[in-house]
Specification:
Radius of gyration: 18 Å
Strand order of the largest sheet: 2-1-5-3-4
Number of strands: 5
CATH topology of one domain: Ubiquitin-like (UB roll)
CATH architecture of one domain: Roll
Distance between the termini: 60 Å
Strand content: 5-15%
Oligomer: single chain
CATH class of one domain: Alpha Beta
Helix content: 25-40%
């Protein structure tokens, strides 16, 4: 019985090879073996989104996938979003709109937002909110996050929900 398995990843644009046990998660490989500690371990149960990375351009919770399952894949972490010293537009927007406080969730929020843009499903502020709902921010930086994401996506920043008018029942 084989105890370690060779895998190849294109990690942030660089070809990398690893040997991992079958039970090693992609999150643990990234943090402990590749030295990419930007991806955070939050709940380790796929409920908080702190570990979100991009695999083939799609966002996944890296704590819920085994590294061996990603053999041959293109994996992008928060460290791979910038182009050298040039920040990704989302990273710059997060700074401009104070879309982070403690910063712990920020790498997962950024990767999730890039994945959201790649998916092309969000067409409104409410859809951005809904499709980013798997990423939890304990500090409550959601308003800045939504403004940053919608700005980069070119979605009007106005809230689509009807404002509450006294004496009426909200829809």
């Amino acid at each position: 019985m084989q105890s370690r398995y060779p895998i190849r990843l294109r990690l942030n644009g660089e070809a990398r090879e690893f040997e991992v046990e079958a039970w090693v998660t992609l999150l643990d490989l990234l943090r402990e073996r590749a030295g990419l500690t930007g991806t955070k371990k939050g709940c380790d149960h796929g409920q908080c989104g702190a570990c979100t990375v991009l695999v083939g351009g799609r966002r996944i919770n890296s704590c819920l996938t085994l590294a061996v399952m990603q053999d041959g894949q293109e994996v992008t972490t928060v460290e791979g979003l910038a182009d050298g010293e040039q920040l990704h537009p989302l990273q710059q927007a997060f700074i401009e709109h104070d879309a982070f406080q403690c910063g712990y969730c920020t790498p997962g929020q950024l990767c999730s937002a890039v994945g959201l843009m790649n998916e092309g499903q969000a067409r409104s502020v409410d859809q951005v909110r809904e499709l980013m709902s798997g990423n939890i921010c304990r500090c409550g930086a959601y308003p800045g996050i939504v403004v940053a994401v919608t700005e980069v996506m070119g979605i009007a920043a106005q809230d689509e929900r009807r404002p509450y008018e006294p004496g009426t029942v909200p829809a």
